Amino acid sequence: MKHGYTHIYTGCGKGKTSAVMGLGMRAALSGFKVCMFQFLKKKRTSAENNLSMPNFKAVCFDEAHPLFKKCIAKKLKKRIMSDIGKAKRVMESKRYDVIILDEIVNCVSCAFIKEDAVLDLIKAKPKRVELVLTGRNATGRLIAAADYVTRLDKVKHPFDKGVRARRGIEY
């Protein structure tokens, strides 16, 4: 790739992670090297636990969002900052053509990290790397910094009627 762009998949609709996994798999099958970092998700729902294919590496971290797992916010904030540092080092290593930061926008909207930390990451993106971010409630500054922005909005979902997430469909 001569020039990589920055994407954001945001909104309250289902399908942000699924969309970027599709993008990542398409890129990997086209010969690009892809690294996907999943923030705030348990291993059982992660790509790391469910996906194995050439040119696609998935990394899941230990700490899940408090919605999924009880944790101390201070510990989570410290861990997310460390994880962003890892993602930045991987991105700057130029070993990967596509870097996916799944749920990183949620880290900002839930105040686990500062918006500037993600903006700095976008600014540090090497020219040829495609950088893809997901999460609800992308800020105006994040949207302005991206080249592609896709908003997935929920119109209707069985969760609204009390149906729990189903394996293979929602996770």
Instruction: Provide the CATH top-level class.
Output: Alpha Beta
What is the spatial order of strands in the main beta sheet?
A: 3-2-4-5-1-6
Mean pLDDT: 87
CA(first)-CA(last) distance: 31 Å
Order of helices and strands: EHEHEHEHHEHE
CATH superfamily: P-loop containing nucleotide triphosphate hydrolases
- The fraction of residues in strands falls at 15-25%
List the domain count as a whole number: 1
Secondary structure: helix percent: 25-40%
CATH topology type: Rossmann fold
Radius of gyration: 15 Å
CATH architecture: 3-Layer(aba) Sandwich
Largest sheet: 6 strands, parallel
Helices and strands, with pairings:
Layout: E1 6-10, H1 16-29, E2 34-40, H2 47-50, E3 56-64, H3 73-92, E4 98-102, H4 104-109, H5 115-123, E5 130-134, H6 140-145, E6 148-151
Parallel strand pairs: 1-5, 1-6, 2-3, 2-4, 4-5
Word description of this protein:
The chain has a single domain (6-161), classed as Rossmann fold (3-Layer(aba) Sandwich). With 171 residues, it is α/β, with parallel strands linked by helices. It has helices spanning 16-29, 47-50, 73-92, 104-109, 115-123, 140-145; strands at residues 6-10, 34-40, 56-64, 98-102, 130-134, 148-151. It starts with 5 loop residues before the first strand and ends in a 20-residue tail after the last strand. The protein is globular and about 45 Å long. Strands 3-2-4-5-1-6 form a six-stranded parallel beta sheet, sandwiched between helices. Strand 2, helix 2 (47-50) and strand 3 (56-64) form a beta-alpha-beta unit. The model has no long low-confidence stretch (mean pLDDT 87). It has six helices and six strands.
